[in-house]
Amino acid sequence: MQEKEFREGVSDTLPLMFGMIPFGLAYGILGKSIGLSSGETIAMSILVFAGAAQFICLPMFVDGASLMMVGFTTLLINLRHLLMGASLAPYMNELPMSFKALLSFGMTDETYAVTIHRAQTGRYSGAYQLGSNTTCYLLWVISTVGGVILGSRISDPLSWGLDFAMPATFLALLIPRLHNKVSVIVCLVAVVVSVGSVILIPGKWYIIIACLVAVMAGGLMEEKQKTD
After folding, report:
1. What is the span of the domain harbouring residue 192?
2. Between 176 and 87, where is the model more confident?
3. How far is CA 88 from CA 30, 75, 140, 192, 209, in A?
């Protein structure tokens, strides 16, 4: 059963990877271009495994930023993982702590999307999440290696337009879940707040702010429905 669930995690995650691979290639190319060695560029994908944070850290290395500043910036960028992890935590209570840590390391936006969808249908499985995480991790590292190797031949992989595949994939996952008034309003609140925060507040705070405001809006509406 666990082997079957692992394979299902792999198969459900593979379609999401078409939007991620160009970013892995771009990261490998950029890492080499700023002066990191091939080993350093690849090791960062293996050990850090956080695409947005890796991109942000590269120019900070060039500017001579301290490790403390790099670490703090990475923390801010990835604060959304606290919210994602909190929503998955109730489904993971029975798992060993070491396995929880492994799954937490491998969680990305893509793997969270497929895992929480399965969990909310009552079919959560640690093996499924591990299959999803493993797929994303291996393809990120492989695409980084590809960017390092092919850097001299591919000037800008994002110019292919494949970067649109990632948001399009998330929209495809989101839209079928907007099945009632509350979910539609929560989605609209998140959109308005995130766009407004991007305009008004520098950095990646818009992700956290939009999540928190949307969660509060959804909670208030569900509470009102219960009392009506």
Report:
1. 178-228
2. 87
3. 34, 20, 23, 25, 20
